[in-house]
C-alpha cells in the first residue's frame, strides 16, 4: 500500500514530495538555539548517530556530549543527564 501511495504522489505532485533531501548537520545546527532542540524522527534503518558523533567532534563537543539509550529503567538517568547538560550547556543524545 505504501508504494501505491508513493506512486500516486509522484504522479500527481511530483518526486520532490517523496524523496528525502540530503541535509548536512551544519545546516541543521544553524536552525537551532538554546531553546530549540534537534529531534530526529527516524524511519526503519535510519541512524544519524555517526553523523551526529562526527559533527560533535568537529564542533568540539564530543567529549562532553552525553549519550544514553532509553531502554527499561533508563528514564531517571536520562532526566538527570538532561538536567546536568542544560546547566552546563552540553549536548545529549537519547
Global shape: elongated
Task: Count the DSSP helices.
Answer: 4
Count the strands? Answer: 2
Low-pLDDT windows of residues: none
CA gyration radius, whole angstroms: 17 Å
Strand order in space, largest sheet: 1-2
The largest sheet is: 2 strands, parallel
Distance linking N and C termini: 32 Å
Topology (SSEs and partners):
Layout: H1 2-12, H2 25-30, H3 49-58, E1 66-67, H4 75-88, E2 92-93
Parallel strand pairs: 1-2
Task: Give an overview of the whole structure.
With 94 residues, the protein is mostly helical. The chain has one domain. It contains 4 helices and 2 strands; from the N terminus they run H-H-H-E-H-E. It has helices at residues 2-12, 25-30, 49-58, 75-88; strands at residues 66-67, 92-93. It has a two-stranded parallel ribbon with strand order 1-2. The chain is elongated, with a radius of gyration of 17 Å. The mean pLDDT is 89.
Provide a compact summary of the structure:
This protein is mainly alpha-helical. Helices cover 44% and strands 4% of the residues.
Notable features of this structure?
44% helix; 4% strand; mainly alpha; elongated
